[in-house]
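Team,

Forwarding the record for the chain on the shared tracking sheet. I've put the sequence and predicted structure together so nobody has to dig through attachments.
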Amino acid sequence: MKSFLKYTLASIVGFLIASLILFLISLAVISTIISSTDKEVTVKSNSILHLQFDKSIPDRSSENPFANFDFAHFKPNITVGLTDIIRDIKLAKTDDNIRGIFLDLSIIPAGYGAIEEIRNALIDFKKSKKFIISYANYYSHGSYYLATVADSIFLNPQGELAFLGLRSEQLFFKGALEKLGLEPQIIRHGKFKSAVEPLTNDRMSDANREQLTTLLSALWNHMLDGISEKRHIDKAELNRLADGLVIRNAQLALEHKLIDGVRFKDEILTSLTKLSGVSSQKKLEFVTLSKYNKVPKAKKGFSKNKIALVYASGEINMGLGDNETIGSEGLSKAIREARQDSSVKAIVLRIDSPGGSALASDIIWRELSLAAKVKPLIVSMGSVAASGGYYIAAPADTILADATTITGSIGVFGVLLNTKNFLNNKLGITSDVAKTNLHSDLGSIYRPLLPEEREVIQSGVENIYDVFLSRVAEGRKLTKASVDSIGQGRVWSAADAKRLGLVDLIGGLDKAIEIAAAKAHLKEYRIVDLPKVEDPLTLLMNDFSSKIKASVISSELGNEQNIYYNLKNAISRQGILTRMPYEINIY
């Protein structure tokens, strides 16, 4: 008995000590985050804006303290959103203390839509006649495309420049599922609705290969147009360099005029010293994006007129959503708030989403349709606005897409996973059911669908597809037949989407805001961001465990973490979805 009490008491004391330690650690984390985010930054004269894009670039900067902390390495990890990046580059254009921009590049873990908007902002920055210098140890396709706006592009003498053309690689899990005894039961509409292919195929279907090749070609040609213009190299020559594997090292990149020089980092710093007008490298003043974002903005006259900038980022699900997903209730509430606020004169919906739940998409569509009846509604598409992401865009007065946006994917599919063989044969687990009616257990993961049940679900998929067509046809003033002909789940590039009537204009978020202001007849206005961000402490408590897990996964798997998430998402998606095919990762 004494031993029992001794060990019990020891366990209680251990638990209390561990809780105290965890509490103190949490306080330290919070203090570190607050100290790193609250201080205003003063920019010294002759400073250089140092741009590194080595972290993901969400549309909106996060107010969540844990979103800005790297738990794998236990240090602050400030992520600046795309809208703030664009605003900071605009500010630097007229900031007398900023002499120029240093692009310190490598692989950019962001969609091509984000890269396109940053590139356009840098092109506008150059009107100030301030310098832009780019340097890298390694240029990916995306980072090199961004770098071509610079006055000079430099590469480490032993560095590399990827210039091979674009590719999109996919993983297929059919064989693994068969070995495990897991049976995906698929119901879909749309010959291009290939979101389910990783579960059912061991290679791309012909239709999927066709749409991806068309998409990649459109994106590659757009990038080549930009590179050709800035580097004064003919597109045919650029394709020859790619096809011939010509750019094998830094010296060959220089010989073929893709870069302006090979340099070590210290030599770049020497050049920046001269350009910034300081006497030595020790006096070089760099200001990072995370710091420059804290520079006090010039106060403008207060305007009672508002334009609501509503962010819709991530997969579309039922519920409230969070910083990384779109929730039907959370986003609908934000849209309703903007509609009912008389001081909000126009709404800009920023979409970066591959879609998701069909029902959630329709709930959001309804709120947007109501909003479009009483005030201008403009959609700005980011890197991806497809399937459910396009569904919610349909009611807009005007739809803008970045030149590199992936959109369309008008199609529907359903997934039910039959785990019976896996549980029985692999784990020795059986299941049984008591029910009042023949189909009371429809949707159970412990048995296969009956033919009549599959027919019912197929009917539901067809009905949702028909509604999808109607929503798009109504919003875009097209016939259902014409929408169907360009639907079938096929993804399109922005240029093709514009040609087909799915998109009105090619342009970024700033252009969308300008159009919203013009349609609302506003000369003076202020931007309000929606949905409103919860207070940092609430976000901190809600997101603690998930951020630790995500941080560790990112630290351990790096760029290959997509494999983990793709497999996890492919297996977990069940029900009827309006979602883009898997994850289209372009390299």
